[in-house]
Input
Amino acid sequence: MTTVTMPQDKNSHIIQTIAAYGKSLLGFIRKRVKNDADAEDILQDVWYQFSNVLNAGPVEQTSSWLYKVARNRILDKHKKHTETLLDDILPTDEDDDDAPDFTAILMTEATTPETEYLRNLFWEQLFVALDELPETQRQVFIWQELEDKSFEEISQLTGENVNTLTSRKRYAVLHLRKRLKQLYKEITEY
Output
């Protein structure tokens, strides 16, 4: 682990740090996100935070600090994506007391063997339920929710109109809600 020495001015230190860690840090981030644009956004965020923290004083373990901030940004991105996925597949009707609430399981900060097991079980069952869907419904759901494509982009890919795609996704969501409700009952009744 290398520590970058503090040059006379802040800008020189930032340039030196980017030269020393930029390529490896970008490689680290790329392995953990789904596309280069997300990786570059996260890296830019890390450099922005780094420049701000230097105003408070020197960073002792530059390498550790950079990778920790990068990991946190990656986790924030995954967490945000999981929240939007959960918003879509979980019922929003507050009157439905039987509605599964995976939010507590998937969004908890604590990482215990139990929470890891439940997260893995959720994702495993989600993909099993997706495999039960007709190909057209499954593909629209995957493109929209897991690959962040808009209905317009999917329409251009498939030649289908947006209303047809929206309907297919709706049927997929209804099926997933039903299947995940079963899983939620199994988890909470043990």
Summary: Confidence is low (pLDDT under 50) at residues 1-7, 93-97.
